[in-house]
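Thread: "does anyone have the structure for this chain?"

Original post by V.I.:
We have the sequence but no experimental structure in hand. Need at least a predicted one for the grant figures.
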Amino acid sequence: MAAYIVAQMAVHDPDGYRNYAMAFMKTIGEFGGKLLVAADDAVELEGQRPYPRTVIGEFADAATARAWYESDAYQKIQPLRASSTDGAVYIIEGIGIPSSPQRRATSD
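Reply from O.Q.:
Generated one for you, C-alpha cells below.
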C-alpha cells in the first residue's frame, strides 16, 4: 500500500529552505519516491491550517518511506529543514476503505 510523507510547516529562513528543497528532490528519487505537493496556497474550507506550507511525497509503502527518512542521505539534510522551518513531519499509509459496514465495525 502506498505511503506518504506529509510535512506541514512555516518557513522562516527561505534561503536555508531553498537549499534543503534542492537536496530533498535528489534523496526522494533515490528511494523511488515522488513529490506530489509542495504549496503554500491551500484553500481553507473549514478550520484553520496550523502551518502555511504543505509538502507530500509518495513512496511504494511505509517501510520505504521510513527507510528514506532514516537514510544517511536524508538525515544529512534534515537539519537544514529543521533550522529553516517550524512544523510537523509524519508518515501516513494510503486509504484502507472497509469493504462493508460489518467489516468496519469489527476493525474498530
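V.I.: this helps a lot. The chain has four helices and four strands.
O.Q.: and The longest helix spans residues 14-29.
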